[in-house]
Every structure is written in C-alpha cells, then in structure tokens.
Amino acid sequence: MLRKVGPLHARLIQGCKEYSNMAQAAPSVLLVDDDHTFLSSARDYARLKGCEVHTASTVRDAMLTVEQCAPPDLMLLDLSLPDGSGLDLLDHLDARDCGEIVVLTGEPGVDTAVRAMRLRVDDYVVKPMRGGYFDTLLQRATRRAQSRLLSSPLASSQCGDLLGNSLIMRRMFKLIERVAPTDNTVLVHGESGAGKELVARAIHQYSDRRGRFVAINCGAVPPDLIGSQLFGHERGSFTGAIRDHAGYFEQAQGGTLLLDEFTEMPMSMQTYLLRVLETRDITRIGARTKHHVDVRVIAACNRDPAAAVRDGVLREDLYYRLADFPIEVPPLRSRGDDAHLLAGRFLRALNDEHGTNHGFSAASEEFISQYAWPGNVRELLHAVRRAYLMAEDGKIELAAYPDPAVLGARASRGDLRWSGQTLEELEREAIEAALARCGNDKTHAARLLGVSVKTVYNKLVRYKKQGPDA
C-alpha cells in the first residue's frame, strides 16, 4: 500500500533533551539517500532528538556502514541511488537484526513496492516526507533502543569481557551464544591483540561448565616439555620429575582448555592431541593407565589455519577436528566506532583507579577514528595507558604517544626517506597516491591504506576547503 505524506521541514529545536541517563539507550538511525539536502536536514534533526545517526549516499557506502556499525533501530532507504537500488542493500543484510525499515522514493512503482514487501520492509513512502511522520519513526526507534537495552547481555554491546557495538561484533556475540552451551570444539582465529582469549573466556563463562578455565600458549613451551605440560607426568618418568604432575587437561577437568597458538605445536604432539580429542583419554608420561577427562577444548591462533596446513606446520586432520565451530575475531580497524567505545572504557577504568577525571582531547578523538590500529585492542589499551601517564591539565593527547614498536615495524617495511614534509603533507600524499593507484575508487583506497572510507572522505573534504595550493 502506497502512502503519500507532505514535505519534511528541517526544524532545529533549541534546548533539545540530552540523554544524560546512562540507562537510556540512544537509538541508532541509518539514512541512505543521494539527496544531500534531505540527508543533512534529516541527520541534524535526528541528532537533536538524541539519535546516533549514520548516513550513506550509495549502496556501497551503506554496505560498509552496516558492516562496521550496530544494526540500526531505524533505516530510511532511498530506492534510486547512483550505484543501484536501495533494496540491493537488504539482499546483503539480515533484516531481523534491524529495527524499522522504511523505503523512500520519488518514483513509486508496483514492481519496487512488491519487492520491498518481500524483503520485510515496514513502510513504503512517497517523497516528500512529512516531519510529523519522521517524529513518529524516531519515537518508535527510541522505544526499540530501550527494549534492546533491557534484553539479554549477549544481545547488548558486551559479551563477557568483550565490548563492541558494531554489526560484525554482534554477529560474533551470537556465535558465542550459540556454541557456548554445547561441547563442540571451537577454533578461534584472528590477528594478534584482537581478543581471541576473551572470546574463549566468554564461551566458558556462558557455558554450563563448572570446572576451571585453563590456558596454555603452545608457542611459549619448549617442544620437549609440551607433552608433560599438557598431559602430565609420573614421578621418575624423566630426569627432574621428582613428583607426580597433573597436566593442563587434568587441571581443566569439567571446564575449558584454551590451546593458544596451537599451530606452533610439534607435529609429533599434534598426532597425540588428535587421539585425545577423539577419545578424551589421556596418559601421563611414564604412566601405564589412562585417565578420561571431560574438557571442552578451544584452539586459537593468529595465523590462517588453512595456510598453516598448506605450509606443512599443521596436520590437516587435526585442523578439521578442531574446526568444529570456527570463530574469526575481527580486527579493530573493521569495527567502526568500537575503537571509541573501547578507549572510553579504558580511560574510565584509569580514572576510577586513580581518582581522576581525565578526558580525551579533540585531536585524540579524531586520532582514534582515523588510526588503523595494527596492534588491535591491545595496542589501543597500551596507547591509552601511556597517554594517561603523560596527560597534562586533564587532557589525554593520544596521538602524541604512538607505539614506537609499531612505528619501527612500519618503517622497516620500506625504504622511507623524509624530505622535510609535515605529517599532514605525507598523509595527503599517501591518500592521493592510493586514489591514483585505485582509479579514484575511495573504498578500495581506504582498504589499501587500512582506514575507513569515512576517513578518506573527511580528508578529501578538508583538502578541498584548503584549496589547490595547500
């Protein structure tokens, strides 16, 4: 059913209500339209109503937004976009994750109306849209945000000690929720510092297991000792074995064992581990009897496990045995505004610990958004701690204290020669070179640079304002 409503007037309201109560959730709104006048007025009005607003003017930008941000409580979707129909976005999105989806069009048609209803669109509105109707949509989005806040912990922005509000993290939270109550072996992989151990701990926390959570870094144990560490030994079984020793499998009885960096395990031990995973029977070194263990195994690595198989450092049968339920932990650079969320948490913890009230400077807020964080959450945590110690007048200057180890690693990758340029000039040169290499494809250039598309757009707008001679 088509409905036609009147024009939307941008009404800037003085003294808008602030969401000062932390128990109140700000509704998330996604506006997808290539009419920049409508986009800016609707964005400003929704923000004055206390909403968190994201905008996109193409299907591609909208897809990147829904990947990096939390599922919106309200989505306004234009049909005619420069690179396709707004409905194409819904083909790549689980509509159940979203709140209300409203299609806007200046050229209504039966075909698009039928397709919209098949894709679980809540309303089909002919432009222009009346402001009162927009108010109603924002009120419903606010109610949905409140109900989301009161839902289960795994449906919120936190899962165990993991924190994230982006869609990619919420999807991972759902995987944790699904696998936690089972006894399936889980394979967790992702970049160093992304939070693989926190994923394993969350799985243990939300399971019904009453035993301990035990972790071993397989790459940190000498090859000749890893068997004793994992499976234990009897007194006198080798030189130095002066007493019986229960290995990590026995210590995790009734609980969860994390095999971190399992791809570093010797091949001979991988053979024995495969047998243990199949039977759950272990034999201590020097013992003649077996012990049955009830242990949930989680394996983690920071390299592609399939590549480890191809490189001959991981047995293929062990890989398939461990990969009952794979979970990939996303890098921080692909998590949108989660970096701000995490930095805020780290700073609050430091303020609480030391009785201070420090805050991030405007430059730090911008730095958090634009920096690619190659060391992921671990690098962000260390950067906040370091900048906190150096803070003056209560201002955290995060960009002033980058990780020297990361900078050194980056410098060693290429023959970097400094020619007296400022950092901003070098940055502009890198962005222009990336755009030239990618045929002015901003999305591809952003991926090449390791930053968000939003960062590239913001930089280009700034360069345009500075003029051609800047």
Care to describe what's here?
There is one protein chain. Helices cover 43% and strands 15% of the residues. With 470 residues, it is α/β, with parallel strands linked by helices. It folds into 4 domains: 3-151, 3-Layer(aba) Sandwich (Rossmann fold), CATH 3.40.50.2300; 158-330, 3-Layer(aba) Sandwich (Rossmann fold), CATH 3.40.50; 333-412, Orthogonal Bundle (Helicase, Ruva Protein, domain 3), CATH 1.10.8.60; 423-466, Arc Repressor Mutant, subunit A (Orthogonal Bundle). The strands form 6 sheets. A 6-stranded parallel beta sheet has the order 1-8-7-4-2-3, sandwiched between helices. Strands 12-13-16-11-17 form a 5-stranded parallel beta sheet. The chain starts with a strand and ends with a helix. Residues 1-24 and 404-418 have low confidence and may be disordered. GO terms for molecular function: ATP binding; sequence-specific DNA binding. Residues 28-142 form the Response regulatory domain. It comes from Dyella jiangningensis. It holds the Pfam family AAA_lid_14. InterPro entries: AAA+_ATPase, AAA_lid_NorR, CheY-like_superfamily, Homeodomain-like_sf, HTH_Fis, P-loop_NTPase, Sig_transdc_resp-reg_receiver, Sigma_54_int.
